[in-house]
Amino acid sequence: MTQQLANTRVRLEFDQQKKDKYKRHLAHLFTEQGLHLNLELVRLGYASTSIYPPNVKYVTALLAAEQAAEAGDLGIWQYTEYTPKLTSELNGANKQGAGSV
Fold it and tell me: Are 46 and 76 in contact (CB under 8 A)?
């Protein structure tokens, strides 16, 4: 993909909000040929989908691409660290948010 994109111009497409609460830009990246790079990375299993409402313009396509990549064990989905687990399968050291007050 890197070689494919060498010397390629891209454009940013923003949804409802341009930045999140941490001032990070929230944008979709497209090539001049119209290739949606965010979607392509998810489709190939190189990224997972993050949703930041009200920015949901491409959420259906992104989630479908993620499900297909996960089902096909593509990219990150081939590693057990990314395999969804039931909370009952986690030991105390691996449970996020575990602790006492």
Answer: yes
